[in-house]
Amino acid sequence: EVQLVESGGGLVQAGGSLRLSCASSGVTFEDYQIGWFRQAPGKEREKVAYINTDYSTDYQHSVKGRFTISRDNYKNMVFLQMNSLKPEDTAVYYCKANGRGHDYWGQGTQVTVSS
């Protein structure tokens, strides 16, 4: 059974930082593109950042320069370092593994940024 588990969310003041982690069982991350998505109340889920198997990355425009996605294939984990957080970053953050014809999602972790 494949499981993705996010952690590291919480409550932080505007301007603060959080580091999200995504760990997997049943999936070898080095074979997958890994993405971070978020969904705010009343809004659609949106892509935040991607990291490919060749370590290339892509970011949503609103988080460029503030968020950094990275992967540790040895630990089978992916991270999202979030700096200079804004209230509009408040959402549930999900990781997704895409590859080998499959998409796998985690259950999400709540990030709340207070003004």
Give your account of this protein's structure.
The protein has strands at residues 3-7, 10-13, 18-25, 33-39, 46-51, 57-59, 67-72, 77-82, 91-99, 102-105, 109-114. With 115 residues, it is mainly beta. Strands 2, 4, 5, 6, 9, 10 and 11 form a 7-stranded mixed β-sheet that branches. It has a 4-stranded antiparallel β-sheet with strand order 1-3-8-7, with no helix packed on it. A hairpin with a 5-residue loop joins β5 and β6 (57-59). The radius of gyration is 13 Å and the shape is globular. The protein starts with a strand and ends with a strand.
Residue fraction in strands? over 45%
Structural class: mainly beta
The value of Rg in angstroms is: 13 Å
Chain-averaged pLDDT: 96
The helix-strand sequence is EEEEEEEEEEE
- Give the oligomeric state of the chains in this entry, treating copies of one chain as homo and distinct chains as hetero: single chain
Tally the beta strands.
11
Largest sheet: 7 strands, mixed
Q: Termini, distance in Å?
A: 40 Å
Per the principal axes of the C-alpha atoms, what is the gross shape? Answer: globular
Number of helices: 0
Helix content: under 10%
* Low-pLDDT segments, ≥5 res: none
